[in-house]
Structures are given as structure tokens and as C-alpha cells.
Amino acid sequence: MGALLEVSGLKVNFGHVEAVKGIDFSLTEGQITTLVGANGAGKSTTLLALSGLVRKAAGQVVFGGQNITRLPSHRIVHLGLSQVAEGRAMLTKLTVRENLELGAYHRRDTDAITSDFDHVLELFPRLRERLDGYAGNLSGGEQQMLAIGRAVMARPRILLLDEPSMGLAPLIVQEIFRIIKMLNDEGLTIFLVEQNVRQALKIAHQAYVIETGEIVLQGTGEELLDHPRVLEAYLGI
Amino acid sequence: MFAQQLINALSLGSVYALFALGFTLIFGVLGVINLAHGAVFMVGAYAALQAVVLAELPIWAALVIAFIISGLVGLAIDILVLSPLRKRDAPHLIPMIATIGVAIMLNSAAQGLFGADTLRFPPGVVPDGSIEAGGLHITAVEIGIIALTIVIMVVLLLGLRRTSIGKALRAVAESPRAAALLGIDVEGLFRKTSFVAAALGGVAGVLISLYANAVYPLMGQPMLHKGIAVIILGGMGDIRGALIGGLFLGFAEVFAVAYIGSTMRDAVAFGLLFLILLVRPTGLFGKANERKA
Ligand SMILES: Nc1ncnc2c1ncn2[C@@H]1O[C@H](COP(=O)(O)OP(=O)(O)OP(=O)(O)O)[C@@H](O)[C@H]1O
Ligand SMILES: [Mg+2]
Hints:
heterodimer; A: 237 residues; alpha/beta; Rossmann fold; 6-stranded mixed beta sheet; 4-stranded antiparallel beta sheet; 38% helix; 27% strand; B: 293 residues; mainly alpha; 11 helices; 73% helix; 3% strand; binds adenosine-5'-triphosphate; binds magnesium ion; transport (chain A); nucleotide-binding (chain A); ATP-binding (chain A)
């Protein structure tokens, strides 16, 4: 299977800060690809640029053969690229059900939406009891589940996840990684940004390491787990 | 006498509510305090007046024309002023200042086109009979104002609760970025909101100019102050708040005039407003309404 998403020469500046300095990477269809790195390395900026939420200073993004570099955010989502942003981007004043429904906002295939809704509730049974409560009243873990479920409701071809394990208890983190693995087993292509480097590399087929806006290493998840530089800088060994 | 005051207060309060509705919609969805909303209100009144005087249209058609023309002005404000500022990530005071400029331009344009004098609708534009019952009388204008406000409120509240676009609007109101990531066309909703909010402001302008029988270039100015008071009282960005706040101000003014004296009208109304805000600083329906990135 070939590259579903190809990024070349991606650059993002914030004023005089070069947050992303011309990086290349690709996502293979059906795989989990991870992008790991320390605080401020440029991970979120990269994801926001893919989704069209920050301006790209240079570079090109090709998704399924189509150049999406300059498309507005909502069109990118409609094409099948969904993102669960850092901090979950909860709509706290909407109910859990409304959040999920909004995930399918642009879709018109009512029957498939209903079956996706049921599927999300099977993946995250805890959401079922909270359907008519406000999303703002959910725990952090439940909010992350809702954010992922909501993105799945768009029936994306690629799911971008920005630090889904952030701020969660170890048990919940296990649960989230299990779900990511499961979604991928169902055929979803996943781009996972993490600071939880060990966990991310364990489930990833392909991996990139980013430092101060540049990709410094790449390989399979397994390869990088044993790489001396990764061991030293990220796994504390 | 008391019942008569109730009717007066209800119609005046309805116009305030209608005006505040557009104002609060813009704030809630775009996050902008639109100080041109009073000028848009004035545009609606002139549009209807021209429709009646020049084109000799019936008042309902004049209302439709006012709705469309002021809506288009709102749309133009978004496209020409607010949208370019959004694209440059202007800090939130900047769009507010820009709308002051828009208001001044619209006011000057009205003055240039129609003069500074107060204009009036020709007699017979609205049926001038009134319904008399038990010593009360209510005019056709008052009935129209109250009915129209109720209908618009119900449509908006149900629309926001029940429809898909309503959900999307609430999402944008809470976080444009989160909404964009869900595939919602945020810019498109900003445009639609700008149109509808201004259109409602224009309709309010027609209604008040029928009620007071006066159209003049600066008629939006006192209304703007009241509109700000109403949405602060109701809770910024809250639609029910605009309704309750508008009615409250209408009642406060009418009863202040009736029982204290007409010179004290605004002093009493705004004094009460101040007292309420001391008790509830976020307004009647305001929660801690922080906008998130
Ligand atoms: N909106 C912004 N304005 C200015 N600078 C920004 C902005 N967003 C990010 N930056 C800067 O860009 C660099 C990369 O930030 P980014 O958020 O992409 O890092 P990250 O890898 O996601 O970090 P973390 O793991 O902490 O989430 C940092 O130096 C950051 O300060
Ligand atoms: Mg980040």
C-alpha cells in the first residue's frame, strides 16, 4: 500500500519563530505513524498545518493524490482528514450526544451515521451513560474518549491525534492506546503525536522524531525503540 | 392604568429585545462587540421609509426590504471589515474600534442622502385603529411588534436547539477552532450570522420608527447604549438574555415614566441595571463565558 498522505518541505513560522523548518514525511495507508518529540518541538504546529489551521510558510501536502495545501479547514475534514486536537477541543456547553452528532456534521448518509454512532458507543461504553449530559462535566479521560469518538463520527480516512494520553491516569492511557490500536485494526490510517514516546513507538509501524522543528530520526517503531539517541533522549536509559 | 402600562412596556421591551438579539448573536458567534449595530438599525428604518414613500409599498413589504438591505449591510461589514481583521489575528478590541468607524460612515451617508431632519412615515402606513377592551387600547403597531418579536425569538431558540446548523453555531460560539476541526465552515457561519443579526437589527429599526414615528440619522445611537445594557444584563451572547434584558429595560423605562416622571426615565432604568449587575456581575444568564481558542 502506498502513501495516503505526503508532506514535503513543510514550514511554519510564528513571527520570527521558525516552529517547523521544512519537514518531509508520509503516512502509509492502514498504518499507525507516530511523530514524537519534546515540548515545543513543533508537533502540534505540524498537525494544525495539516488541518489548515495555521498558515504554511512553504511546503506541500498531498492527500490521496489531491493537493490540499491551500484548502480551508472544513474542506480538509470533508475530504477525510480529521484531527483530535491537543487539549481535546471539547465543546463543553453541548451535550455528549450533540458533540458526537457534530462529528458527522457534513455527512448526509443517515443510516451509516447511525451505525457509526452505535459503533462509537461500543468503543466507549462510558459515553453511553453520559449521552445527554454536558461534555464539560465529563472527566478528562471521558473527554478524550468523546473527542476520539467525535472524530470517528466523521468517518475519516486519516485520523490525526495530538497527545491523546496527555494528563490521563495510567489505566486510562492504556485504554486509549488500546482503542487507537483497535481503530487501526479496523483499517483507519493514524498519525499519532505523543510525548509518551515508549507507548507510541510500541504501537507505531512508522515513526519520526522531531526536535526544534526538524525531523532528526525516522524508522519503524521497533527500530526507534532501540535507537541509542531515542533511548538516551526520550526513554531515560 | 397599570394594565395599559404593561402593554406599553411589553411593546417597547420587545423592540429592545429584537435589537439586542442581533447584537448578542454577533458577540456570541463572532466574539465582536459590534458598535455599528445601531447604524444598521437606522439603515433598516430608512430602507423601509424609502420603500413606503418612493415605491409606495405596503408596510409588510417594506419590512422585508429593510430585513434584506440591513442584512446585506451586515454582510458587507463582515466581508470588508471583520473578516480581514480575523485573518490577521487582530486582538479583540480592534474589530470593535473598526465598527465605530463603520457606524460613523453609515451615519454620515444617511445624513448626506436624506438630510439630518427627522422624517416620518406617511399616515395610514399601518392601520391606525386600535383595539379597545376594558379601557385598554393596543395599536396595530404594538400588536405587530409583540407578535413579530415572539415569532423571531421562538424560531431562533428552537433553531439553535434543534437544527444541525444551530448546533454548529453553538459550537462556533464556544470555539471556532474546535468547530473548524469538525468540518464546520466557520467563515460561512460568520457570514450568515452577520446577515441575520443585521437583518434583525434593521427590522427593529423599522418597528421603533413606526412606534415613535421618527426616522433620523442618529436614531441608532441611544439604541446602541440600550442594546449594550440589555446584553450585559441578559448575559453576553445569550439569546434568552437578550429577550429578558430587553423586556426588563422596556418595563423599567415605562414604569419610571409613569410613576416617577419622564425626565428620570433613563436614570431609573440604568440605575436598576447597575443594581442588578452588582448582584449578578455576569448578567442574568451569564455563566463564566470565556471563549476558548
Ligand atoms: N500561536 C503561536 N504563536 C507563537 N508561537 C507559537 C504558537 N504556537 C506554537 N508556537 C511556538 O512554536 C513552537 C512549537 O510549538 P508546538 O506547540 O508545535 O510544540 P509541540 O511539539 O506541540 O509541544 P508540546 O509537546 O508542548 O505540545 C514552540 O516554540 C512554540 O512556542
Ligand atoms: Mg503540542
